[in-house]
Design a protein that fits this description.
With 177 residues, the protein is an alpha+beta fold. Helices cover 31% and strands 25% of the residues. The chain is built from four helices and seven strands. The chain has a four-stranded mixed beta sheet, covered by helices on one side. A three-stranded antiparallel beta sheet has the order 1-3-2, with helices on one face. Strand 6, helix 3 and strand 7 form a beta-alpha-beta unit. The radius of gyration is 17 Å and the shape is globular. The N and C termini lie far apart (39 Å).
Length: 177
């Protein structure tokens, strides 16, 4: 990105002041670390997490955290059915799972995702919904195995909250999960 956009992004991040920041469309961990070191030195983001995902353009999901990261898991190898596809597919980018140890013995697991874009019409909607369903199944299984864990899903869902393709994540009870 051009410097003007980097400055604007860093200003928005300063204004919001999040302890944990899920980030999409990141080129590499090195790029993200350089951005943090140049524009966010006062934010306290000591942790930078990125695992190379499935996108052939090299855009990945990542995370900044002010608190220690105790575990990281990628779900880029997970395959799931998509209506109209002959073979199971994987996430367009990744579903990144990060466990964070916060203050006062508070821990949480964050899932960062970037669902399929809307480019491609109905086929993209079907793919986005399949990704949302697969993500919710993974998150739901994690919650069932860890009922006392605090869980957050964040990222770019690439749709409005009330739209059908993202309902498995936004409203899992209604979508039958």
């Amino acid at each position: 990105k051009k410097k003007k956009k980097k400055v604007a992004l860093s200003q928005a991040m300063h204004d919001i002041k999040k302890d944990i920041e899920g980030i999409q469309e990141v080129e590499s961990k090195a790029t993200l670390t350089q951005f943090r070191d140049k524009y966010l030195t006062d934010m306290g983001y000591r942790e930078v997490v990125l695992i190379e995902g499935n996108d052939t353009r090299g855009i990945d999901v990542a995370l900044f955290s002010r608190y220690p990261v105790t575990a990281v898991k990628s779900h880029k190898e997970v395959r799931f059915p998509v209506p109209g596809e002959a073979q199971p597919v994987g996430f367009s980018r990744d579903l990144l799972q990060v466990r964070i140890q916060g203050p006062n013995n508070y821990a949480l697991t964050v899932f960062v995702l970037h669902l399929k874009s809307q480019h491609g019409g109905d086929e993209a909607d079907v793919r986005r919904e399949a990704e949302a369903r697969a993500a919710q199944q993974i998150i739901g299984a994690f919650q069932k195995a860890n009922p006392r864990e605090n869980v957050v899903a964040m990222g770019d869902f690439n749709d409005k909250p009330l739209e059908k393709p993202v309902q498995p994540l936004v409203n899992p009870q209604v979508s039958g999960l």
